[in-house]
User: Which sequence fits this backbone?
């Protein structure tokens, strides 16, 4: 059930039955020479749509831009500043709360968004608004991480991961026909001594010149993407079902 396809009366009727809504959020940023610029919002969007469909829960339009300033030394990246992103998330929450939604769940595809989203939650509470606010980052779910270890051993890494590249290969197989797939360098270096975060775009490019962070995206396969998609959807469904039982004071 997509919010964008309803009328206001249909939303009012939904609110008589349910008070929960899901919002996919991601980023528009480089994912090395193996992954799509849209990776983080495409994965979050398709996982969220599937969860919404299976649970009959409303899904708000995807927020495709996120906090990606550290990727700005790579062409195609579009970022929102951390303060603006926090405000934007706050405004989205306040809009939904004002209509009567009481449980607002962000399904996230990008690690760089998490601090700003949590700060927005704190701000909304500071402004005295009741309601349940949560962010679920699919790539941080323990069930998904177990599967990633099974599929990629210690080569999943932290950015442009074979996991997210597999997912997008599964979700958008056609656009991968002209993308690089073969391994072009030595295995990842998992020694993170001397690395630090956050980074400016110059620092990022100096640390990670080809845009990966300790990942082996050449291990990505459509079939792995199907498995990861199913695992992420199942794991999120379990959590949403628990959240549906929470009573808002
Ligand atoms: Zn990503």
Assistant:
């Amino acid at each position: 059930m997509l919010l964008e396809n309803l009328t206001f009366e249909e939303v009012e009727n939904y609110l008589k039955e349910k008070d929960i809504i899901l919002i996919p959020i991601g980023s528009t940023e480089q994912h090395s020479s193996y992954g799509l610029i849209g990776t983080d919002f495409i994965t979050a969007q398709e996982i969220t749509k599937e969860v919404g469909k299976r649970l009959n829960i409303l899904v708000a339009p995807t927020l495709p831009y996120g906090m990606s300033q550290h990727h700005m030394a790579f062409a195609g990246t579009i970022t929102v500043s951390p303060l603006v992103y926090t405000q934007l998330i706050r405004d989205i929450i306040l809009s939904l709360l004002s209509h009567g939604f009481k449980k607002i769940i962000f399904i996230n595809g990008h690690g760089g968004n998490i601090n700003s989203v949590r700060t927005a939650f704190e701000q909304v509470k500071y402004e005295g608004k009741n309601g349940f606010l949560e962010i679920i980052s699919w790539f941080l779910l323990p069930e998904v991480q177990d599967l990633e270890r099974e599929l990629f051993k210690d080569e999943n890494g932290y950015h442009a991961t074979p996991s997210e590249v597999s997912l997008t290969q599964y979700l958008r197989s056609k656009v991968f026909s002209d993308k690089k797939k073969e391994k072009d360098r030595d295995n990842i270096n998992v020694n993170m001594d001397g690395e630090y975060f956050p980074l400016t775009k110059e620092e990022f490019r100096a640390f990670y010149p080809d845009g990966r962070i300790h990942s082996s995206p050449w291990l990505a396969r459509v079939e792995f993407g199907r498995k990861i998609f199913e695992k992420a959807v199942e794991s999120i469904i379990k959590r949403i079902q628990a959240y549906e039982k929470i009573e808002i004071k």
